[in-house]
Write a structure and sequence with these properties.
Layout: H1 2-21, H2 31-44, H3 54-64, H4 68-77, E1 86-87, H5 89-98, H6 105-114, E2 123-124, H7 125-134
Antiparallel strand pairs: 1-2
Helix pairs in contact: 4-7
């Protein structure tokens, strides 16, 4: 009898978890907010293919008068107070894993696989910025 109750609880818990897992993320927002998201997406999706790609972002940045390369370099400069053009790999990895929109360890390792490093193992963020904004030759 006890095992039957445990089985019932397991099924109920599994059903509840499945419902949570399949819930619609848009249910968290009001209809007006969802419409704003759709409008913003369509403004960024310059080629109207339903996917926001690098060229869509470049075009959006240029329309806003923002240089994406300079914006990214400015962000990296915050981690380079000495102005050497590099950031410490271990410190940067820790930030990626623990701050804001946290990266997974797999995402960090994937990024570091393409990241230019100097002889000391520090990240050459100027070269990384170029790869982010222009693509990696290996990708093409």
């Amino acid at each position: 009898m006890a095992s039957r109750k445990a089985g019932t609880r397991s099924k109920a818990a599994a059903t509840k978890q499945a419902q949570r897992g399949s819930s619609n993320v848009f249910s968290m927002f009001e209809q007006a907010q969802i419409q704003e998201f759709k409008e913003a997406f369509s403004c960024i999706d310059q080629n109207r293919d339903g996917i926001i790609c690098k060229s869509d972002l470049r075009e959006t940045y240029s329309q806003l008068g923002t240089d994406p390369e300079e914006a990214i370099l400015s962000a990296f400069r915050m981690f380079d107070p000495s102005g050497k053009g590099v950031v410490n790999k271990d410190e940067f990895k820790q930030l990626l894993l623990t701050q804001a929109d946290k990266f997974s360890l797999a995402e960090v390792e994937q990024m570091f696989a393409l990241t230019p490093m100097d002889l000391a193992g520090d990240i050459d963020y100027k070269s990384l910025c170029y790869i982010i904004t222009h693509g990696d030759e290996k990708e093409e």
